[in-house]
Amino acid sequence: MIKTRQRPFCFLLFLVASTLFSTSALASATTSTAPLNLTQSTAGYAALIIFGLAYTLVMMEEYLQLRKSKPVLLAAGLIWIIIGFVYKEFDQVEIAKAALEHNLLEYAELLLFLLVAMTYISAMEERRLFDALQSWMVGKGFNFRTLFWLTGILSFFISPIADNLTTALLMCAVVLKVGGSNLKFVNIACINIVIAANAGGAFSPFGDITTLMVWQAGHVSFSEFMPLFLPSVVNYLIPAIIMSFFVPKTQPDAVHERIELKRGALRIVGLFVLTIATAVAFHAVLHFPPVMGMMMGLAYLQFFGFFLRRTLPRSIAKKKAMAIANNDEMALKRLGSIVPFDVFRRVSHAEWDTLLFFYGVVMCVGGLSLLGYLGVVSEIMYTQWDPIWANVMVGILSAIVDNIPVMFAVLTMSPELSMGNWLLVTLTAGVGGSLLSIGSAAGVALMGAAHGKYTFFGHLKWAPVIALGYAASILLHLSLNGHLF
Description:
Layout: H1 7-22, H2 42-59, H3 61-64, H4 69-89, H5 93-126, H6 129-139, H7 144-162, H8 164-179, H9 183-201, H10 209-216, H11 229-244, H12 265-284, H13 291-310, H14 312-325, H15 329-335, H16 343-348, H17 352-371, H18 373-384, H19 387-401, H20 403-413, H21 419-432, H22 441-449, H23 456-460, H24 463-480
């Protein structure tokens, strides 16, 4: 039996379904193999409203403390329920099912790819590699302005390998440690890190989810991202140079601690480089999805984890003998707290909220595409407008809506673009998110990590300066890579 409190909800679902079936926009639909055009139907409007409400909750994540994956997961389910009812009514379930499976395959490839990359980053973090880097910067006694430049430059060059989200969190930890009490420095340094991480990720398939999506879709090969390097540098340097004049040269009060790398840390970095090379080889040589190479790379880490566990007793015995010989009580204490390396524990530490959010986005956008809305947007932006202006607008939209759904929408539209324009939309979607703190995963993550110190309005104050870098990077790309258009 249905409980009394559940009856209104069930009745609401029945009412929505009945409305969808009776919509006049579907009167002319037939049982052809083409998708139904539902852009002016009750079903289409309902899906748009659901997606709009879900994304409003995503943008308010900082204030609601509601993880961004929750609303889009619910929205994805509701949109596909609507699609399922309508397509079943018109006996075209196979069309909807094929579209659903296509979107699931798109997501599965990206999920497995990102999961392996996140597992490696988690393994490096567990082996204290990032702690050692942080300790080195603190121990050097740099002033605030030097730390501003150092964290920014490192963010730019680490993000192409470790992705912009992980890089931003790492550098934010350094900034909070050395300047936690100086709110002005923390805010401006975090803005600098977000810009640098997003710019650095724009010229690498591994730097951002959007670049990974473009690479996996086959529109840009691995080596063809390199023309974006100089535009990315300019995108970072222009706002960084202007902001640096507002950073004091005073010395921070920070306590230095010595960090000892755990066994196998550097070898895991080597395995990660080998994994990336394997993924590139699968894509470039065999023309298979790069995720195959990444999953093979996970096997490298699993075998190395097995080696670390099997040789742990011998390693502990050797270190214990050395500690006793040197009368090092601290070393003996550290040996007592050693935990064996566990690959599956590293897998569990992946950014699951981000991965599930990405699922919700892919399925929502895929549903809106089947309803016909992306076809309308594509017709306006990439037929009626100049593609260059359309791609510039994609970057601006990325700052408001987040670059992942915007880029997935572009890929789903699959407009006919030159290599220069595919590189342009990759650049704008990647760096456009820097215009606002909510425009990229790096910005959203840092608002949480530096809560109350790095804020939406603190970032917004520097938006005109960031926009200068955005415009300059586009102009440089058009100038340097004009032969690709």
